[in-house]
Design brief:
- The protein is an alpha+beta fold.
- It folds into two domains: about 50 residues, Ubiquitin-like (UB roll); about 80 residues, 2-Layer Sandwich (Translation Initiation Factor IF3).
- The chain is built from four helices and six strands.
- The strands form two sheets. Strands 3-4-6-5 form a four-stranded mixed β-sheet, with helices on one face.
């Protein structure tokens, strides 16, 4: 159909002539209400955005000589973060000469992983970065 004839038909019906596939030969156009079409597309985008869940990385910091109650409290915070669907970065900070015994830190991080094994899996195993031992846990 000629462009002029199609445009006249669209105006007669009270709609717009919208180019759907500009790269096709000949180009494909459609007679539609463009304002309504844009509104529907924006509405779909809003619904899709509302349904998405952004995963955050929450951090829980430990020390090598942590006591039982402090360990339990911090581990429960990590458990809550994981139940909300977030990732947890477990950071064990060494201070001063504590870095001379990284096995103590690895034992604490291993205890965290064992305690949270029912709700989390290890994404990144514990590794030493400077004076910090880090491990990332993701929800199961």
């Amino acid at each position: 159909m000629e462009v002029d004839a199609a445009l006249a038909q669209a105006v007669e019906q009270g709609f717009d002539l919208v180019e759907v596939a500009p790269l096709a030969r000949p180009p494909v156009v459609r007679i539609m209400d463009y304002g309504k079409y844009k509104f529907e597309m924006a509405k779909q985008a809003r619904v899709a955005k509302k349904k998405q869940h952004i995963i955050l990385i929450k951090e829980v910091k430990y020390r090598p000589g942590i006591e039982k109650h402090d360990f339990d409290t911090k581990t429960n915070h990590a458990r809550r973060f994981l139940s909300e669907g977030n990732k947890v970065k477990v950071t064990l900070m060494f201070r001063g000469r504590q870095i001379a015994h990284p096995e103590i830190g690895r034992a604490v991080v291993g205890r965290v992983a064992a305690t949270l094994a029912d709700v989390a899996k290890i994404e990144t195993d514990a590794r030493l970065e400077g004076k910090a031992l880090t491990m990332i846990l993701t929800p199961k």
